[in-house]
Amino acid sequence: MTKKKIKALMKKNIPPYIYCGVVFLLGILLGYLLGFFRIHEYAKLPALNFSWSFDFISTVTSLTPNPKFLSDIAAFEAVLLAFFIPLSIEIVSKISERYKSEVIISAFDSIWENKILPWLLIFNIIFAISLRFLVNDDGLLGFWKICAWIVFVVFIGTAVIIFRAIAKLKKYMTNVDYILEKLSQNAKEIVKQK
Predict the structure, then answer these.
(1) Exposure check for the chain: N or C terminus, fewer CB within 10 A?
(2) Is there a contact between 152 and 73 (Cβ–Cβ < 8 Å)?
(3) Nearest 5°: phi and psi at 100?
(4) Distances (CA, A) of 186 to 89, 94, 125
């Protein structure tokens, strides 16, 4: 593809995770084709040493999380669910009232972070509390250890999503040009429909 085609593709409003998915699938396809045609046998590449990855994996799996952190995660996420989400909705509705348009609320509700965040928080709170009651304090083994790590990883992912949501909320609060652009896009769509 040429640079112009790539730039034209990037100007379309395609979410970045779609690009990541396409690149991932292309990588899998390329790896399959290279393996299918046994390119590695013809290329005579030197052997790669991946022992460091096994050392890393064994180190990570040897770490056993303390089950008490599950209560902390559940409490922190419950506070976010109770305060951040209603507060962000209130802020956006006040901005919408200022401009007397429902476009701002619908644009804010259509952001994927705002759609997934409450469900992710509820899932992780229920999962963390369930694990806290099902697991003894003396340690985690096997399946429970994996579940505790899943709760922790989802917690980190939730923190990243909250950071992105706060950045977008800040854009709604401070960037008047962004709001006016949303309003003008809505007006153009209404004119096109008529």
Answers:
(1) C
(2) yes
(3) 55, 50
(4) 20, 19, 37
Count how many residues are written for the chain.
194
**With 60 as the cut, is the pLDDT of residue 128 above it?**
yes
Residue tagged 């923190």 (tokens) = 159
Yes or no: say if 73 and 155 are a contact pair by the CB < 8 Å rule. Answer: yes
pTM: 0.59
Confidence band (pLDDT; 50, 70, 90) for 59?
A: confident
- 55 contact partners, CB below 8 Å, separation of at least 6: none
Mean pLDDT of 94-121: 80
Distance CA 145, CA 135 (A): 10
Instruction: Please give the single-letter amino acid code of residue 158.
Output: T
In the numeric block, which tokens belong to residue 45? Answer: 């590449």
If we measure between CA atoms, which residue out of 169, 173, 165, 170 comes closest to residue 116? 165
**Two structure tokens written together for 123:** 């899932």
The SS3 of residue 9 is: helix
Report whether 66 contacts 132 (CB < 8 A): no
Taking the alpha carbons at both ends of the chain, their separation in whole angstroms is 38
| 170 class by beta-carbon count within 10 Å (0-12 exposed, 13-18 middle, 19+ buried) | exposed
Q: What pLDDT score was predicted for residue 48?
A: 59
Closest of 70, 57, 61 to residue 151, by C-alpha: 70
Q: Under a CB-based contact definition with an 8 Å cutoff, are residues 116 and 85 in contact?
A: no
